[in-house]
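Title: Prediction job returns without error message
Component: structure pipeline
Severity: low
Priority: P3
Assignee: unassigned

Description:
Job completed but the reporter wants confirmation the result is attached to the right record. Sequence as submitted:
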Amino acid sequence: MKYFWKFLLVLMILFSGCVKDDDGNYTIYGPEDLDGPQLVHPYTTDQNEMAVYEFMDNELLDNLLYVYPESLIGELMEAKAEMESLEQPIEIVFIMTPGFGTDENFFQFGEQLADRLTRPYASYPPDGVYSLKALQLVTSDTENSFVNVEKSTYAKAAKLAKRGGICATLAIAHSLVRRLNGLVPREATGNWESVTETNDEGNEVWDPDFLRTIYRASGDTDGSRGLTNEQIERAHTADYSSSWRIRISRALTAIKREGTDMTNAQLAVKCEDLKNMIEENRDDCLLRLLGKKTVDGREVTVGHRMTITGVDCSNGSMKITTINTGRQDRNNDWENVPYNPGEEEWEITPDGINPPAHWEHIDWEESFFSCFDEEPKDPQNVDPTRGEPGTIYN
């Protein structure tokens, strides 16, 4: 079946993170890890259709007795091998119904899988035959990264699979609207267009065109949505206002590096430095984290970037409050990204980094911050309304 070759192409594509490899002047980071537990079994099923969701793993493939068309088993084995070679965790899920259906693709499983495939509403059939209804791609964020792969939408699924996370774009968006003295108004002001909208569920979300505008300002051309540090700085300092410019007030600065312990005094100096940038200088700062996790016996490097809203220096630790940029778009399409995702607290101590509870599956090893500030283009004629849209919107 030709569409399975298309699906194989999906698996060959590495999922780009929100931060890509940087140029020589920057630390090299791996892909972003989204907010959420990793590859939880997709036991949620559609009971109305009696569908059975099951991971395509080696046990499932080894106990296939018959597959139609016959070439399908070889293609599935190749797809599984390609999937296991990827650094970013991704799994394939079969969506099946017991018995023969109108679809031309079906599997026959051995009795060894009877207990595994039995559901309270869908017993294992006597002949072990299941019809394949669809496939699903699952990444590390099970809340936001289910991509249903219907037989007629493989081209669309391939495009979705190539897109990574947008934590960097979101960190900049929150900076422009919530920090930087409201450089970009949230509501329509003058010739500004509103940067948020209300979705069908009645929730306030980012206007996807606003997020795309920030992403385009980075100069990235591969469409993956992941950004290098240089691209992040370019997007953050783009010309958003006719009256105000944004400058880098502090380049990427290390707080704690891998394998390096600090004294309480050294950490206190770093903490007061960042606190001063935010509270005294009234600059806007972003937190950058780098860590590792184990996926199927493999060590994977992950990174994450957030907008800082507060810093506390006390009791020998550095507590940083950030906007949760891990809450992103379900279908990697810039749509329905929460404008109010909530805040998180990250603690940095002389010995290590203590993340919020839902980030504990990662061993965070390195932390950095960078800061930005706005300044008037004409100090003699400062427009308190923040001016008209700059060239970034042209």
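Comment from assignee: result matches the submitted record. The two ends are 46 Å apart (CA to CA).
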